[in-house]
Amino acid sequence: MHVVVCVKQVPDTEAPIRIRPDGQGVDESGLTFVMNYYDEHAVEEAIRIKERAGGTVTLIAAGPARAAEALRAGLAMGADQAIHIQDPALDGLDHLALARVLTAAIASVPYDLVLCGKLATDDNAAVIGPALAEFLDLPQATAVTRLELGDGTATAHREVEGGVEVLEISLPAVVTVERNINEPRYPSLPGIMRAKRTPITVKTIADLGVDLGGSGAARVRLLGLAPPPARPPGRMLEGEPAEVVRELVRLLREEARVL
Amino acid sequence: MEFELGEEHRLVQATVREWATSRLLPIAAEMDRTGRYPPELIRELGDLRLTGVFIPEAYGGGGMDTISYCIVIEEIARAEAALAAVLSVQNSLDCYPIFAFGTEAQRRRYLPELARGRKIGCYCLTEPTSGSDAASLRTTARDDGDHWVLDGTKIFVTNGVEAEILIVYARTEPGETGSRGISAFIAEKGDPGLSVGKIERKLGIHASSTCEIVLDECRLPKDRLLGERDRGFHIAMATLDGGRIGIAAQALGIARAAMEDAIGYARERRQFGRPIAEFQATQWKIADMATRIQAGRLLTYRAAWMRDQGRRHTREASMAKLFASETAMWAATQAVQIYGGYGYIQDYPVERHFRDAKITEIYEGTSEIQRMVIARHVLGAS
Ligand SMILES: Cc1cc2nc3c(=O)[nH]c(=O)nc-3n(C[C@H](O)[C@H](O)[C@H](O)COP(=O)(O)OP(=O)(O)OC[C@H]3O[C@@H](n4cnc5c(N)ncnc54)[C@H](O)[C@@H]3O)c2cc1C
User: Fold this and answer.
1) Contact criterion met (CB below 8 Å) for B286 and B221
2) Choice among A116-125, A157-166, A214-223 with the minimum mean pLDDT
3) For domain A2-216, which architecture applies?
4) Is A186 near chain B, with CB under 8 Å?
5) Do B270 and B205 share a structural domain?
6) Global pTM?
7) In chain A, what are the domain boundaries?
8) Do B148 and B92 belong together in one domain?
9) What is the 3-state secondary structure (H, E, C) of B176-225?
10) How far apart, in whole angstroms, are the C-alpha atoms of residue A126 and residue B306?
11) Are the C-beta atoms of residues B80 and B31 closer than 8 Å to each other?
12) Is the ipTM value over 0.85, yes or no?
């Protein structure tokens, strides 16, 4: 079973985000980057499949030079090889164009299954997985919490409102995973050493033979980024406990409307 | 000259930090209170090979360098200092001498289980009448044909209660007194005449065991001699060079814990209408902590780097251990001060850091002994 996993490097969700003065991106100075959490679960699932059924795990990331660290982290967990798409043109791509680039990279290796995280925590788009399925003309299952592989088919469990949906899809397929699908392993020291020795294949968009047309053929344009409104300061209630509780219940009911 | 960790070192740091933050930090206070660690933690650390960081992969280890080892110990100690003591003994004082001085058969027999965290190791040098003056040890090893017979009492043995593979130093030349005529041996739990004696109660690092190991006509097969006969003191000292780098890293972890907790508290605690972090008296304490920790880390990494280069590093290891341990004690004292009365109360973490920090100035050579070693190298005296 050959599994391809798309991984994205994103700012650590605990890192404080500052928006660049031009409003077109975030200020990366002093920011720590990590593999998107959902993608860690996708890598873990791929490695478990390899451990059960044999085969290979190939990681693909598109991003600047630093994105190689996310690939190293995945190699350290136990992936076999990695492709890093590095190209200055990546910067201006919208999700659909990026999915085209990733599609070409996936098509350049043998695969029976493509795994992605459900979404990336930086832009919350959840577009790449479904777009890959479309461009590769494959069946898909999104936000999967359990994946069982059969002979040429896979059973995917999804949590839906009020229950669990069970899908059967034929392979190859694209599956995006939810965080509760597994518990990702910590890379071992020998894993880290192996990752260090494994060469990462670097490709440009042109290397992949993708022609995006003029100006990256972006159909979506970023107008601007703005920080969320500052949270209003908390309010302290003072007085006798009985009074304070009554006032608190009133506020929760009438102002916060959570009761 | 580069002052940055490389990619694989950063990955080691991120991995161990995440493990320690999610698995260890939440139970640190409980470990301190109960004096125990969950045994499965050792298995987990073993799966990551943190129990044999610099042992080659062929023997089940992590195959990494001493810098990685420092990163591992510092990150573990940042969360909980006793487990860092357990790990540093396992790596530096047990795995290392077996790897460096053992026969191929001994390496194959012991290293995979130690490096994978399936068995715990310990190091038995100190005796009731020989601490700083380790060369005056009195435990004897008598040649009895196909066996060595060991007699004596070792004290203050870290990991002694759980240990299944013990490095024991004993005198093989009864006529000799000083460092000559000492040999190193590998004992195994269950060897006849080997037993655990008094278990100590102590000021800090509660979750690591410290106990007496009693050798009463303890019979070890001949192939348990580690290294050459009568060269044991050399093994003990070469082992401590690496061990001291590990203790320096442990001290840095404790110092960082003290500083990071103090920063968090200083931002929250308000007096005179503002956070105490806004008082210059607090800020200067934090500034000095940060500076000393950074200086200690540079000394520690340099000693580790020299060890990895195969250069002599006795002086550098002592400097790192001396400076980092005194930094830990100093920083923990400052942290308690920043917490005020709360710092003296067991519900707050700096009370634990304060107690944990002290041991780093004592074991693997007291600060006085480190200064003696450094002075000997600097002054060139014998
Ligand atoms: C929790 C704990 C864990 C330990 N783990 C281990 C272990 O795993 N294995 C092991 O073998 N040992 C272990 N030890 C022992 C430890 O290494 C010794 O306690 C330490 O080396 C000091 O020896 P001592 O206690 O006999 O003190 P002493 O040597 O009696 O020293 C007492 C004081 O005199 C000072 N002093 C001694 N000689 C000189 C000198 N020449 N000049 C100036 N000052 C001097 C010392 O610095 C100290 O301040 C452990 C100890 C503790 C408390």
Assistant:
1) no
2) A214-223
3) 3-Layer(aba) Sandwich (3.40)
4) yes
5) no
6) 0.91
7) 2-216, 233-259
8) no
9) CCCCCCEEEEEEECCCCCEEEEEECCCCCCCCCCEEEEEEEEEEEEHHHE
10) 49
11) yes
12) yes
